[in-house]
Amino acid sequence: MTQSSSSKSTLGYFGWAFIVTIAGLVLGGLLGWNMTGTLGGLATAFFICAVLAVLEISLSFDNAIVNANKLKEMTPVWQHRFLTWGIVIAVFGMRIVFPLAIVAIAAHIDPWEALKLAATRPAQYAEIMHGAHLPIAAFGGTFLMMVGLTYFFNHEKNVHWIAFLEKAMAHFATIKGIEIAFVLIFALIFAGLLGGEDATTFLYSSVYGLLTFLLVEVVSGFLDASQKTMSAAAKGGLGAFLYLEILDASFSFDGVIGAFALTQNLFVIAIGLGIGAMYVRSMTIMLVEKGTLAHYRYLEHGAFYAILILSVIMYVQTLIHIPEVITGLGGAVLIGISLWSSIRYNKRNGLNHRSADEEPRDRANA
């Protein structure tokens, strides 16, 4: 991706997403017709696919912004690889393979049997998926919490949106491992609230989520350092790719589990969430090529606050059910407020007509 294509209209970035939407909704309708043989079944499947797509988009605004934040540091080759192979992994891996793997492990059956279970006994399949919600929420919530806290606990961070809070976190970032200690304390509190076997499961899953984050950080640094040794221009390569894939997986946990509240059909879920994933991809490309993150200085802050809230919600969902609409709207509202704050900042400082290349220098000198 190059800045030369930044003159493209906003709608121009969503061409493939629109094509996938039409194809997905048609396929969803045909699936409903095939299952029921009625127009009512066709309309129901069509509607559920559309709702799931909207749900995925609302839950993934912050995902797109974080992806763009990482992608802008990657070489064009690795950007292209993430936006092609990465989206294949996101759509088919997380929306189809991941649920099948969870059911296969939980039910002690092979993946093919899990697929047949999804096709022939969707209610039992959904029950197994719901039964696996606690460890998934603990793992994903911990990983996302570390992503959010690592952004704010950074002593080099000098652009602050909620100044009193972010300045304090930047100050305490000099204490090594403070974000890890914060996450572990949080996990212990929730494990205590759960009690019994659930507490043990929650705690183990949280530790695995923490270790996964740390391992990805280590592997990312090692791989990217190796690539830089081979070529000074090879920045943000395989390590960054792996980081983004695991991050996308963590974002997807909540949507995949929540989708079973609307339908128990794995294939309808895959179509609906897959449509949403294409819009996330389009938003990511637009943010990178248009330099939106440079123009709106608080947009990243809003995304990372949304990540932190999502991680807490995933923890809380192990105790009580929280509707997915609240999860999605909460993140969207935060990002909207951060965008509004950025626009106000630009107006106050006469930055409306400045180029995307100038803003990073402003941020470095802030």
Description:
- The protein has one domain (9-364).
- The protein is globular and about 60 Å long.
- It is built from 16 helices and no strands.
- The chain has 366 residues and is mainly alpha-helical.
- It has helices at residues 15-36, 39-59, 61-71, 76-107, 111-120, 122-131, 133-152, 163-172, 178-194, 196-230, 238-259, 266-289, 292-295, 299-316, 324-348, 358-364.
- Biggest beta-sheet profile: none
Number of domains: 1
C-alpha Rg (nearest Å):
21 Å
Q: Which consecutive residue ranges, at least 5 long each, have pLDDT under 50?
A: 229-235, 353-366
List key phrases describing it:
transmembrane helix; single chain; globular; 16 helices; 366 residues; membrane; mainly alpha; DUF475; transmembrane; 0% strand; DUF475 domain-containing protein
Secondary-structure topology with pairs:
Elements: H1 15-36, H2 39-59, H3 61-71, H4 76-107, H5 111-120, H6 122-131, H7 133-152, H8 163-172, H9 178-194, H10 196-230, H11 238-259, H12 266-289, H13 292-295, H14 299-316, H15 324-348, H16 358-364
